[in-house]
Amino acid sequence: MIHPVILCGGSGTRLWPLSRKSYPKQFSQLNGETSLFEQTVKRVQRPGIADPIVVTHSDYRFIAAEQLQTAGADAPTIMIEPEARNTAPAILAAALSLHEQPDAIMLVMPSDHAIADEDAFDQAVRAAEQSAEAGKLITFGVTPDRAETGYGYLELFDPILGAVSCAQPLKGFVEKPEQAIADEFLASRRHLWNAGIFMFRVSEILEAFEVLCPRLMMPVRRAVDGARRDLDFFRLDEASYKMADDISIDYAIMEVCETSSVIPLDCGWSDLGSWASVWKTGDADENGVVQNGNTTSIDCENTLLRSETDGVQLVGIGLDNITAIATGDAVLVADMSKSENVKTAVKMLKAEKVKQAELFPKDHRPWGHFETLSLGDRFKVKQIVVRPGAALSLQSHVHRSEHWIVVAGSAKVTIDHEVKLVSENQSVYIRLGAIHRLENPGKVPLHLIEVQTGAYLGEDDIVRYEDIYARSRTDDKAA
């Protein structure tokens, strides 16, 4: 069996304001009606391929779990990193979790890449499988169609002439080049973009770590051995994992391994690492304008217009080579050629403590999400969506009362010792100090409007009663 390992960390700051630390690009719908993460999961739903191991951060565990379910993954393993330590520790942790299956083959992939030709990707995976079974450590290299300075490169011994479907000897890794060198790489036909996709047998990659990067073995092995179950998650031991070096699999293993090979990949690959790359892979009109959401283009050329909020209409007039992105709380307007500088802008916003640098108005929780619609001196209005079968923790408030108006679905509401069903277009009042719980007993999402009134409206005004009322499936310390 091939065991996919999907690396699902990273904040994707180059795609701000759509991608932020609280909800990075892999979970966003950048190039279609599903997220990049969901596309990655579906990409490996083939015969002979096991359910994926997803390595992610604790902040993203419930988002990942929800999208895995949407993508149809039956029994995934969600491995929680207590702290991001780059790709080598993450891959080693996944390999150690499979140590009882030494002949199993791991297919390691980022969660935030786009692939246009799924069949071509599948063919490349099958070709790589043969080399992995022969003991090779495989990296995938994308056939370049331009002199790109934003990617690392893989150097081959011989030029690639025509279609190649078998593994090629790897001469070396090359860092992101200057433009003149990138031009030479494109002309040489001996250089491929480093896609960050790998394949190897469990036994070979564990042996490679033992020989080439032994300092990672002890802390990561202890982190795996000391891992604990947390609901449906596999949480690595925090103290042990933090002792692991922050190092990529390229530096730790692939660049110094004598058994590395390359599978050429020609499948319409893009890492969607900038707004310029999103524009290049978009569905452009005859003037090179790509539009998403509520947008209007007048006399524009080679431009990306994107509105991410239903209530925001974005209009571009006479624009050329411009990126314009509008969300509910932030707007980006940039020269397309400067789109790599978005990361710098996010650093500036963080330094100025601008909340939009990292946070969205929409806050994702284990039971669903909420979004603040309006905030005043003594009131707050929120839209709350609760997933079918989910519930918030049993709680009370010291400083506020709440009014709940059900917009769609039905709510099971507990107020002190009374339990009632509140249907669509009905409302309920939660007095200050009342012990209450909100649940969705139905099969469709529950949508409601919450109006808070009181002297203090912070999210920390919550007294919890989970220790009194045992509800293991609704244990939500962040509700």
Describe this structure in words.
The structure is a single chain. The chain has 479 residues and is of the alpha/beta class. It has eleven helices and 30 strands. It has a six-stranded antiparallel sheet with strand order 20-21-22-29-24-27, with no helix packed on it. A hairpin with a 2-residue loop joins strand 25 and strand 26. Helix 3 crosses helix 7 (217-225). The longest helix is centred in the first third of the chain and has 16 residues, at 118-133. 40% of the residues are buried. Mean pLDDT is 91; it is low at 467-479.
Q: Globular, elongated, flat, extended or rod-shaped: what is the shape? A: globular
As a whole number of angstroms, the C-alpha radius of gyration is 25 Å
Structural class: alpha/beta
Largest sheet: 6 strands, antiparallel
Q: Give unreliable regions as ranges.
A: 467-479
Average pLDDT rating: 91
| Beta strand count | 30
Give the helix tally: 11
Order of strands, main sheet, comes to 20-21-22-29-24-27
- Helical amount: 10-25%
**Termini Cα gap:** 39 Å
Q: Give the amount of beta strand, in percent.
A: 25-35%
Write the SSE topology.
Blueprint: E1 2-8, H1 36-43, E2 53-57, H2 61-71, E3 77-81, H3 87-97, E4 105-110, E5 114-115, H4 118-133, E6 137-142, E7 153-156, E8 168-174, H5 179-188, E9 191-201, H6 202-212, H7 217-225, E10 228-230, E11 233-235, H8 238-241, H9 249-252, E12 260-265, E13 269-270, H10 275-280, E14 290-292, E15 295-298, E16 304-307, E17 314-317, E18 322-326, E19 331-335, H11 342-351, E20 362-365, E21 368-375, E22 379-386, E23 395-396, E24 400-408, E25 411-415, E26 418-422, E27 427-430, E28 436-439, E29 446-454, E30 463-464
Parallel strand pairs: 1-2, 1-4, 2-3, 3-11, 6-12, 14-16, 15-17, 16-18
Antiparallel strand pairs: 4-9, 5-13, 6-9, 7-8, 7-9, 8-12, 10-11, 18-19, 20-21, 21-22, 22-29, 23-30, 24-27, 24-29, 25-26, 25-28
Helix pairs in contact: 1-2, 3-7
